[in-house]
Protein backbone atom coordinates (compact mmCIF):
# COMPACT_ATOMS: atom_id res chain seq x y z
CA UNK A 1 0.00 0.00 0.00
CA UNK A 2 1.25 3.47 -0.99
CA UNK A 3 -0.27 6.84 -0.12
CA UNK A 4 0.88 8.88 -3.10
CA UNK A 5 2.37 12.38 -2.67
CA UNK A 6 0.63 15.38 -4.20
CA UNK A 7 0.85 19.16 -4.15
CA UNK A 8 -1.20 19.35 -0.95
CA UNK A 9 1.45 17.47 1.05
CA UNK A 10 4.80 18.59 2.40
CA UNK A 11 6.34 17.15 -0.76
CA UNK A 12 4.99 19.99 -2.93
CA UNK A 13 8.35 21.70 -3.40
CA UNK A 14 10.18 18.50 -4.45
CA UNK A 15 7.45 16.49 -6.16
CA UNK A 16 9.61 16.11 -9.26
CA UNK A 17 12.30 14.46 -7.12
CA UNK A 18 10.13 12.28 -4.90
CA UNK A 19 7.54 10.90 -7.34
CA UNK A 20 10.18 8.88 -9.22
CA UNK A 21 11.06 7.19 -5.90
CA UNK A 22 7.44 6.23 -5.33
CA UNK A 23 7.25 5.04 -8.93
CA UNK A 24 10.35 2.87 -8.47
CA UNK A 25 8.81 1.34 -5.35
CA UNK A 26 5.50 0.77 -7.12
CA UNK A 27 7.10 -0.96 -10.11
CA UNK A 28 9.31 -3.12 -7.89
CA UNK A 29 6.30 -4.24 -5.86
CA UNK A 30 4.26 -5.03 -8.97
CA UNK A 31 6.96 -7.43 -10.12
CA UNK A 32 6.01 -9.60 -7.13
CA UNK A 33 2.56 -8.72 -5.76
CA UNK A 34 -0.51 -6.49 -5.97
CA UNK A 35 -0.44 -2.81 -5.06
CA UNK A 36 -3.00 -0.46 -3.50
CA UNK A 37 -2.45 3.24 -4.24
CA UNK A 38 -4.48 6.05 -2.73
CA UNK A 39 -4.12 9.73 -3.60
CA UNK A 40 -6.12 12.85 -2.85
CA UNK A 41 -5.40 14.25 -6.33
CA UNK A 42 -7.91 12.26 -8.41
CA UNK A 43 -6.55 13.20 -11.85
CA UNK A 44 -3.03 12.15 -10.84
CA UNK A 45 -4.38 8.89 -9.42
CA UNK A 46 -6.09 8.10 -12.71
CA UNK A 47 -2.83 8.74 -14.56
CA UNK A 48 -0.97 6.45 -12.17
CA UNK A 49 -3.53 3.69 -12.59
CA UNK A 50 -3.28 3.82 -16.38
CA UNK A 51 0.51 4.06 -16.40
CA UNK A 52 1.11 1.21 -13.97
CA UNK A 53 -1.57 -1.04 -15.44
CA UNK A 54 0.06 -0.61 -18.85
CA UNK A 55 3.44 -1.39 -17.27
CA UNK A 56 2.24 -4.64 -15.70
CA UNK A 57 0.54 -5.68 -18.92
CA UNK A 58 3.55 -4.94 -21.12
CA UNK A 59 5.96 -6.67 -18.74
CA UNK A 60 3.66 -9.60 -17.99
CA UNK A 61 3.92 -8.97 -14.24
CA UNK A 62 1.85 -10.81 -11.59
CA UNK A 63 0.89 -7.68 -9.66
CA UNK A 64 -2.25 -5.65 -10.30
CA UNK A 65 -2.94 -2.03 -9.33
CA UNK A 66 -5.89 -0.95 -7.19
CA UNK A 67 -6.37 2.84 -7.10
CA UNK A 68 -8.58 4.59 -4.55
CA UNK A 69 -9.14 8.36 -4.33
CA UNK A 70 -8.82 9.31 -0.67
CA UNK A 71 -7.86 12.42 1.31
CA UNK A 72 -4.55 12.31 3.19
CA UNK A 73 -2.35 14.79 5.04
CA UNK A 74 0.87 13.01 4.12
CA UNK A 75 2.33 9.83 2.65
CA UNK A 76 3.66 7.75 5.57
CA UNK A 77 1.55 4.63 4.99
CA UNK A 78 3.62 2.62 7.47
CA UNK A 79 2.25 4.75 10.28
CA UNK A 80 -1.28 5.66 9.23
CA UNK A 81 -1.95 2.43 7.31
CA UNK A 82 -3.82 -0.65 8.57
CA UNK A 83 -2.18 -3.42 10.54
CA UNK A 84 -3.33 -6.85 9.41
CA UNK A 85 -3.71 -9.81 11.75
CA UNK A 86 -4.81 -13.40 11.34
CA UNK A 87 -7.68 -14.42 13.59
CA UNK A 88 -9.59 -17.66 14.06
CA UNK A 89 -12.16 -16.23 11.64
CA UNK A 90 -9.60 -15.25 9.01
CA UNK A 91 -7.75 -12.05 8.20
CA UNK A 92 -8.75 -8.78 9.85
CA UNK A 93 -7.56 -5.18 9.69
CA UNK A 94 -6.79 -3.23 12.84
CA UNK A 95 -7.32 0.52 12.55
CA UNK A 96 -5.28 2.06 15.36
CA UNK A 97 -5.52 5.79 15.96
CA UNK A 98 -2.92 8.03 14.29
CA UNK A 99 -2.02 11.49 15.61
CA UNK A 100 1.11 12.33 13.59
CA UNK A 101 3.68 11.12 16.11
CA UNK A 102 2.19 12.91 19.07
CA UNK A 103 0.52 15.85 17.33
CA UNK A 104 3.60 17.16 15.52
CA UNK A 105 1.75 17.76 12.22
CA UNK A 106 -1.83 17.77 10.83
CA UNK A 107 -3.25 14.25 11.01
CA UNK A 108 -7.06 14.17 10.76
CA UNK A 109 -7.20 12.96 7.13
CA UNK A 110 -4.54 10.32 7.74
CA UNK A 111 -6.39 9.04 10.79
CA UNK A 112 -9.55 8.54 8.69
CA UNK A 113 -7.78 6.99 5.68
CA UNK A 114 -8.11 3.29 6.57
CA UNK A 115 -11.87 3.56 7.08
CA UNK A 116 -12.13 5.51 3.84
CA UNK A 117 -10.24 2.80 1.94
CA UNK A 118 -12.33 0.09 3.55
CA UNK A 119 -15.59 1.88 2.65
CA UNK A 120 -14.33 2.13 -0.95
CA UNK A 121 -13.80 -1.64 -1.07
CA UNK A 122 -10.00 -1.56 -1.22
CA UNK A 123 -9.77 -4.40 1.31
CA UNK A 124 -12.58 -6.48 -0.10
CA UNK A 125 -14.64 -8.18 2.59
CA UNK A 126 -11.87 -8.14 5.20
CA UNK A 127 -13.38 -6.74 8.42
CA UNK A 128 -11.89 -3.57 9.91
CA UNK A 129 -11.65 -3.16 13.67
CA UNK A 130 -11.05 0.29 15.23
CA UNK A 131 -8.62 0.29 18.17
CA UNK A 132 -8.76 3.25 20.55
CA UNK A 133 -5.00 3.49 20.97
CA UNK A 134 -2.39 5.55 19.13
CA UNK A 135 0.01 3.18 17.39
CA UNK A 136 2.14 3.58 14.26
CA UNK A 137 3.21 0.58 12.23
CA UNK A 138 6.81 1.80 12.26
CA UNK A 139 6.90 1.60 16.04
CA UNK A 140 6.58 -2.19 16.19
CA UNK A 141 8.59 -5.05 14.69
CA UNK A 142 7.35 -8.66 14.84
CA UNK A 143 9.19 -11.94 14.42
CA UNK A 144 5.93 -13.56 13.30
CA UNK A 145 6.08 -15.96 16.24
CA UNK A 146 4.75 -13.87 19.11
CA UNK A 147 7.63 -11.49 19.87
CA UNK A 148 7.28 -7.74 19.37
CA UNK A 149 10.36 -5.47 19.34
CA UNK A 150 9.78 -1.78 20.10
CA UNK A 151 11.30 1.32 21.70
CA UNK A 152 10.33 2.94 24.98
CA UNK A 153 11.19 6.39 23.60
CA UNK A 154 8.31 6.13 21.13
CA UNK A 155 5.75 3.94 22.85
CA UNK A 156 5.89 5.76 26.19
CA UNK A 157 5.81 9.31 24.77
CA UNK A 158 2.96 11.03 26.68
CA UNK A 159 1.68 12.83 23.57
CA UNK A 160 0.47 9.50 22.18
CA UNK A 161 -1.25 7.62 25.01
CA UNK A 162 -0.67 9.70 28.16
CA UNK A 163 -2.50 7.45 30.63
CA UNK A 164 -1.05 4.11 29.48
CA UNK A 165 2.06 2.59 31.07
CA UNK A 166 4.42 -0.11 29.84
CA UNK A 167 2.47 -3.00 31.38
CA UNK A 168 -0.80 -1.79 29.86
CA UNK A 169 0.87 -1.46 26.44
CA UNK A 170 2.12 -5.04 26.68
CA UNK A 171 -1.41 -6.20 27.54
CA UNK A 172 -2.84 -4.30 24.57
CA UNK A 173 -0.24 -5.71 22.16
CA UNK A 174 -1.08 -9.17 23.44
CA UNK A 175 -4.80 -8.63 23.01
CA UNK A 176 -4.67 -6.98 19.57
CA UNK A 177 -1.58 -8.49 17.92
CA UNK A 178 -1.27 -11.80 19.74
CA UNK A 179 2.08 -10.87 21.27
CA UNK A 180 3.44 -13.36 23.80
CA UNK A 181 6.22 -11.00 24.86
CA UNK A 182 7.58 -7.53 24.15
CA UNK A 183 11.28 -6.61 23.91
CA UNK A 184 11.88 -2.95 24.77
CA UNK A 185 14.86 -0.97 23.53
CA UNK A 186 15.60 1.98 25.81
CA UNK A 187 18.39 3.44 23.67
CA UNK A 188 18.97 4.36 20.04
CA UNK A 189 17.99 7.30 17.89
CA UNK A 190 18.64 8.98 14.54
CA UNK A 191 19.06 12.72 14.17
CA UNK A 192 16.30 14.25 12.06
CA UNK A 193 13.80 11.56 13.02
CA UNK A 194 10.31 12.93 13.83
CA UNK A 195 8.97 9.62 15.17
CA UNK A 196 10.66 9.48 18.60
CA UNK A 197 12.86 6.53 17.57
CA UNK A 198 10.68 4.18 15.57
CA UNK A 199 12.05 0.66 15.68
CA UNK A 200 11.92 0.35 11.86
CA UNK A 201 14.76 2.86 11.55
CA UNK A 202 16.93 1.09 14.15
CA UNK A 203 16.54 -2.71 14.38
CA UNK A 204 14.64 -5.31 12.34
CA UNK A 205 14.00 -9.03 12.39
CA UNK A 206 15.46 -10.70 9.30
CA UNK A 207 14.50 -14.14 10.70
CA UNK A 208 12.84 -15.17 13.97
CA UNK A 209 16.30 -15.80 15.48
CA UNK A 210 18.18 -12.97 13.75
CA UNK A 211 18.11 -9.17 14.21
CA UNK A 212 19.96 -6.65 12.07
CA UNK A 213 20.52 -3.19 13.50
CA UNK A 214 22.03 0.22 12.91
CA UNK A 215 25.58 0.56 14.26
CA UNK A 216 27.77 3.66 14.37
CA UNK A 217 31.52 2.92 14.48
CA UNK A 218 32.58 6.58 14.61
CA UNK A 219 33.25 7.58 18.23
CA UNK A 220 33.15 11.25 17.22
CA UNK A 221 29.65 10.93 15.78
CA UNK A 222 26.72 12.25 17.85
CA UNK A 223 24.99 8.86 17.49
CA UNK A 224 27.81 6.74 18.83
CA UNK A 225 26.84 6.50 22.52
CA UNK A 226 23.14 5.90 21.99
CA UNK A 227 23.64 3.26 19.29
CA UNK A 228 26.40 1.53 21.26
CA UNK A 229 24.00 1.32 24.21
CA UNK A 230 21.31 -0.07 21.89
CA UNK A 231 23.75 -2.69 20.60
CA UNK A 232 24.47 -3.79 24.17
CA UNK A 233 20.75 -4.12 24.87
CA UNK A 234 20.31 -6.30 21.78
CA UNK A 235 23.19 -8.51 22.94
CA UNK A 236 21.30 -9.18 26.17
CA UNK A 237 18.00 -10.06 24.50
CA UNK A 238 17.05 -13.73 24.22
CA UNK A 239 14.60 -15.67 22.09
CA UNK A 240 11.54 -17.24 23.67
CA UNK A 241 13.50 -20.50 24.17
CA UNK A 242 16.32 -18.67 25.96
CA UNK A 243 18.80 -18.69 23.07
CA UNK A 244 20.61 -15.47 22.19
CA UNK A 245 19.80 -13.76 18.93
CA UNK A 246 22.08 -13.73 15.95
CA UNK A 247 22.99 -10.08 15.43
CA UNK A 248 24.20 -8.33 12.29
CA UNK A 249 25.24 -4.67 12.30
CA UNK A 250 24.29 -2.62 9.25
CA UNK A 251 26.64 -0.06 7.66
CA UNK A 252 26.66 3.51 8.89
CA UNK A 253 26.10 5.84 5.90
CA UNK A 254 28.01 9.07 5.54
CA UNK A 255 26.16 12.01 7.06
CA UNK A 256 23.54 13.57 4.77
CA UNK A 257 22.24 17.04 5.59
CA UNK A 258 19.47 19.24 4.22
CA UNK A 259 19.81 22.74 2.77
CA UNK A 260 19.85 24.17 6.29
CA UNK A 261 22.67 21.88 7.39
CA UNK A 262 20.40 19.67 9.53
CA UNK A 263 21.26 15.98 9.54
CA UNK A 264 18.79 13.63 7.85
CA UNK A 265 17.88 10.12 9.11
CA UNK A 266 19.46 7.86 6.48
CA UNK A 267 19.21 4.23 7.59
CA UNK A 268 19.57 0.86 5.88
CA UNK A 269 17.26 -0.69 8.48
CA UNK A 270 14.25 0.81 6.70
CA UNK A 271 13.96 -2.02 4.14
CA UNK A 272 10.73 -3.64 2.94
CA UNK A 273 10.25 -7.40 2.64
CA UNK A 274 7.91 -8.45 -0.20
CA UNK A 275 7.28 -11.73 -2.03
CA UNK A 276 10.68 -13.16 -3.03
CA UNK A 277 12.45 -9.80 -2.70
CA UNK A 278 13.68 -7.11 -0.33
CA UNK A 279 13.50 -3.45 -1.33
CA UNK A 280 16.52 -1.74 0.20
CA UNK A 281 16.85 2.04 0.60
CA UNK A 282 20.17 3.42 -0.59
CA UNK A 283 21.38 7.02 -0.49
CA UNK A 284 24.06 7.53 -3.14
CA UNK A 285 26.85 7.20 -0.56
CA UNK A 286 29.90 4.86 -0.52
CA UNK A 287 28.31 2.52 2.05
CA UNK A 288 25.46 1.54 -0.30
CA UNK A 289 27.40 -1.33 -1.88
CA UNK A 290 28.27 -2.84 1.49
CA UNK A 291 24.64 -2.56 2.58
CA UNK A 292 23.50 -4.42 -0.55
CA UNK A 293 26.07 -7.18 0.08
CA UNK A 294 25.06 -7.58 3.73
CA UNK A 295 21.37 -7.61 2.87
CA UNK A 296 21.93 -10.34 0.28
CA UNK A 297 23.62 -12.39 2.97
CA UNK A 298 20.70 -11.84 5.35
CA UNK A 299 18.13 -12.80 2.70
CA UNK A 300 19.98 -15.26 0.41
CA UNK A 301 16.80 -16.59 -1.22
CA UNK A 302 15.39 -13.17 -2.08
CA UNK A 303 16.27 -10.63 -4.73
CA UNK A 304 17.72 -7.43 -3.24
CA UNK A 305 16.34 -4.37 -5.03
CA UNK A 306 18.19 -1.12 -4.18
CA UNK A 307 16.07 2.04 -4.47
CA UNK A 308 17.62 5.48 -4.12
CA UNK A 309 15.67 7.05 -1.25
CA UNK A 310 17.74 10.17 -0.81
CA UNK A 311 14.73 12.35 -1.79
CA UNK A 312 12.56 10.60 0.83
CA UNK A 313 14.79 11.46 3.75
CA UNK A 314 14.30 15.15 2.93
CA UNK A 315 11.02 14.65 4.82
CA UNK A 316 12.72 12.51 7.49
CA UNK A 317 11.57 9.02 6.48
CA UNK A 318 12.57 6.28 4.06
CA UNK A 319 11.33 3.26 2.12
CA UNK A 320 9.67 1.17 4.83
CA UNK A 321 8.05 4.35 6.19
CA UNK A 322 6.08 5.04 3.00
CA UNK A 323 4.79 1.47 2.56
CA UNK A 324 2.44 -0.89 4.39
CA UNK A 325 2.26 -4.57 3.50
CA UNK A 326 -1.08 -6.36 3.21
CA UNK A 327 -1.13 -10.16 3.53
CA UNK A 328 -2.60 -12.41 0.86
CA UNK A 329 -6.36 -12.53 1.16
CA UNK A 330 -6.82 -8.93 2.34
CA UNK A 331 -6.90 -7.45 -1.17
CA UNK A 332 -8.69 -8.98 -4.16
CA UNK A 333 -7.74 -7.10 -7.34
From TrEMBL:
It comes from the Bacteria. The keyword Iron does not apply. Keywords: Hydrolase. InterPro entries: Peptidyl-Arg-deiminase_porph. SUPFAM superfamilies: Pentein (SSF55909). GO terms for molecular function: agmatine deiminase activity; protein-arginine deiminase activity. One of its GO terms (biological process) is putrescine biosynthetic process. Gene3D superfamilies: L-arginine/glycine Amidinotransferase, Chain A (3.75.10.10). PANTHER family: AGMATINE DEIMINASE-RELATED. This is Peptidyl-arginine deiminase.
Amino acid sequence: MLTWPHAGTDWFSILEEVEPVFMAIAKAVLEHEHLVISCEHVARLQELGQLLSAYTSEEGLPGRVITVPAPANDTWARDHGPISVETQSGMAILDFRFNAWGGKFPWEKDNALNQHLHNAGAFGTTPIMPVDFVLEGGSIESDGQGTILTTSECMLTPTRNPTVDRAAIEDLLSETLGADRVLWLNHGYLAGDDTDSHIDTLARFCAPDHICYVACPDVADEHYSALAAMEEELQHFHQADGSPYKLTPLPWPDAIVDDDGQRLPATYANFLIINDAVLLPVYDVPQDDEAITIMQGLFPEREIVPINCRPLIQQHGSLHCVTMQLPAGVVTP
